[in-house]
Design brief:
By secondary structure, the protein is of the alpha/beta class. 41% of the residues lie in helices and 23% in strands.
């Protein structure tokens, strides 16, 4: 496992002991190693207008805003809780070229042909109709505008979920439609979706980085048991079996702890780039 960059390591250490029920900032720490690849691929320049899809607490939005100034950035997310935190952090960092809107990018009414770049860090895998969603995003982009995404590869390439499912045992169930984090993991299928939706020059680059759950094992366990699939599985079994399952999860997390990274599980994503068709 490669050494974490200083900003990434500092982020993990600074908030790793704060459960996500207290702070939505957890996801920035979990994904920071992947985030560095996305940031390097943005290609955002001064004066660009940028759309950030599934912006969460706005780390990607604020990064884009610094690169785009005096251009502006719109961050969109379905979670008002995440957007509230994004606005707080944006105000604290005195960024005046950012705005946020609550909405589902599949149906949100974006200004047509407004943006030069659309970005997303794991914010596009949950569309009910991905072709319609990406067509709506394409309509918001100018001709030949860039699309830059991070999405998870298929489940079998993501240890973090496979190990959680193994600990859950028979209680684990496949994600329902519209809630599958690996729905864009097949590169051929996703390329067809994007081309059908109005994009060309679609390229996939493999990103092989850990997901990071911090240096506090109790906080890491709270994170994992709070995942939707985990909490649903625990609710399906008896109290005794739930307790044994939680202990298996704790043992799994402890087995993947080291001094530098804390609790780190292997994962693979796709960095996808494309261009809006003329």
């Amino acid at each position: 496992m490669r050494r974490l960059s200083s900003p990434c390591a500092a982020l993990v250490r600074s908030i790793a002991s704060v459960p996500p029920s207290v702070s939505p900032d957890f996801y920035d720490a979990e994904l920071c190693a992947h985030h560095e690849h996305l940031r390097a691929a943005y290609g955002i320049g001064p004066g660009d207008e940028v759309l950030d899809i599934g912006c969460g607490t706005g780390l990607t939005t604020r990064d884009a805003a610094r690169a785009a100034a005096p251009g502006g950035v719109l961050g969109v997310d379905v979670s008002e809780r995440m957007l509230q935190r994004a606005r707080q952090l944006t105000t604290a960092e005195r960024l005046a070229n950012v705005r946020y809107e609550r909405g589902d990018a599949q149906v949100h009414r974006f200004d047509r042909a407004r943006f030069d770049v659309a970005i997303s860090r794991f914010g596009t895998m949950f569309f009910a109709d991905p072709v319609a969603a990406f067509a709506n995003i394409a309509a918001a982009l100018r001709a030949e505008a860039r699309l830059v995404l991070l999405v998870w590869q298929r489940l079998e390439h993501n240890e973090w979920m496979r190990l959680i499912d193994a600990a859950l045992g028979d209680a684990a169930q496949p994600a329902p439609p519209g809630a599958d984090p690996f729905s864009l993991g097949d590169a051929e299928v996703t390329a067809r979706i994007l081309k059908t939706a109005g994009f060309d020059d679609v390229h996939f680059e493999e990103v092989h980085e850990p997901v990071l759950y911090g240096h506090d094992l109790d906080a890491a366990l709270a994170v994992v048991t709070g995942f939707q699939n985990t909490s649903a599985a625990l609710a399906r079994v008896s109290d005794g079996e739930a307790a044994r399952t939680v202990e298996r999860l704790r043992e799994m997390l402890a087995a993947h702890y080291d001094r530098e990274h804390g609790v780190a599980l292997d994962s693979r994503s796709w960095l996808i780039t494309a261009r809006r068709r003329r």
